[in-house]
Design brief:
211 residues, alpha/beta, Rossmann fold, 2 domains, 4-stranded parallel beta sheet, two-stranded antiparallel ribbon, 6 strands
Length: 211
Amino acid sequence: MEIPYELLGRIFVYGAIAAFVGLVFALILGAYSFKKRKILLPNFVLFILYMFYSPAKWICRSFQIRETLVDEILIEVRNAVMRNAFIHNKGKKVLFLPQCLRHGDCSAKCHPIFGYECKQCGKCSIGKISNAAHEKGFSAFVIPGGSFVKKIVKHCQPSSCIGVACYTELSEAMEEMSFMPVQGVCLKKDGCFETRVDVNEVIKTMGLCDV
């Protein structure tokens, strides 16, 4: 039987064009939702942007748009999709903070399961956030990496969580944690050392559970 190479080629080309059009459409929908805070076709946007994550970033680079826009859209849409379930979840809640928020002179020791144990020295924002978390019924963890998230989830078995991280790591982590209600807060200053986050935004996000 002769293999219909021409037909297969046409199908491939048409499929690639359809995928590209769908990706551009998802980016436009996501950008509109991000700007207007009005989420349109959220599941479609999440599915397409996660499936074509690298091409979406390539499009942003090609049109001289900041690459983090893709991650910002994913985080904003995921927050909107999960917000109602997060608000009404009454189970155990955890807050994951990145170790890069620590002050350069931090003397906290790292626990093999729970991460860094804050000493409340007041040199960074972690102490204030941790105190607010305790008041709002959250267990706060300062983690060195994603592997700690898995260990903490396995040990504590939370039913909802909040993550704080840079755009790229947060969008990836929220996808991995989508089996439970999750909310994300992006760092205001990223990097690997003495980063910053809007403390009030983190506290406000924890406060959603008070509604």
